[in-house]
Structures are given as C-alpha cells and as structure tokens.
C-alpha cells in the first residue's frame, strides 16, 4: 500500500492508500479505539471526498447495508480495519 495523503483530526488518523497490486483506493481511519477504526474501499471519482468525510460515507454504507430493497451500489465499501502499525 502506498500512502497518497494523510491527515489527523484529534487522535484520529486518516489516510488515503493505493494498492499497487490491484489498483484499489482505500481510506483508512484509525481512531483511539478499535471500534473507531475502519477502512473504506473507494472509487477514484470520490476518493478525496471520502478522505475528507469518511464518517459520512461510512454512515451511508451502513444505511445501505441495512436496507435490503436498495439496489444502487454505495459509493464506498466499508471494510474491516486491518491494523498494520501506524500509517
């Protein structure tokens, strides 16, 4: 994974990562506890928006997964956080 951008907000670290192997973009959010940490796989078109607003996109993803009748694919996929040390 290659870090394209990084920012901090309080004790939360947010990184925009690119996987050279499969050309995917991921926004990683590492909070002060494991419950506050998650990753979002994002399309190129919305990567920076997700980077700056990861909690909004995570909430949209959760709402989409709670609504079985919704057929439209969410703009970001919520992935479990994979801790690999500090990013």
Topology of helices and strands:
Elements: E1 2-9, E2 12-18, E3 25-30, E4 38-42, H1 47-52, H2 54-66, E5 77-79
Antiparallel strand pairs: 1-2, 2-3, 3-4, 4-5
What do these coordinates show?
- With 87 residues, the protein is α+β, with helices and mostly antiparallel strands.
- It has one domain.
- Helices cover 22% and strands 33% of the residues.
- The chain has 2 helices and 5 strands.
- It has helices at 47-52, 54-66; strands spanning 2-9, 12-18, 25-30, 38-42, 77-79.
- Strands 1-2-3-4-5 form a 5-stranded antiparallel beta sheet.
- A hairpin with a 2-residue loop joins β1 (2-9) and β2 (12-18).
Keywords for this entry:
87 residues; alpha+beta; single chain; 2 helices; five-stranded antiparallel beta sheet
Write down the secondary-structure element order: EEEEHHE
Output the radius of gyration: 13 Å
Mean pLDDT: 83
State the separation between the terminal residues, measured CA to CA: 10 Å
Extended strand count: 5
Lateral strand order in the biggest sheet: 1-2-3-4-5
Strand content: 25-35%
What's the domain count? 1
- Can you tell me the residue ranges where pLDDT is under 50 for at least 5 consecutive residues? none
Describe what is shown at a glance.
With about 90 residues, the chain is of the alpha+beta class. The protein contains two helices and five strands. It has one domain.
């Amino acid at each position: 994974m290659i870090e394209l951008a990084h920012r901090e907000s309080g004790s939360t670290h947010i990184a925009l990562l690119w996987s050279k192997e499969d050309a995917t973009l991921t926004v990683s959010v590492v909070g002060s506890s494991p419950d506050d940490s998650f990753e979002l796989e994002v399309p190129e078109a919305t990567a920076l928006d997700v980077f700056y607003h990861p909690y909004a996109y995570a909430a949209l993803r959760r709402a989409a997964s709670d609504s079985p009748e919704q057929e439209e694919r969410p703009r970001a996929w919520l992935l479990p956080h994979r801790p690999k040390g500090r990013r």
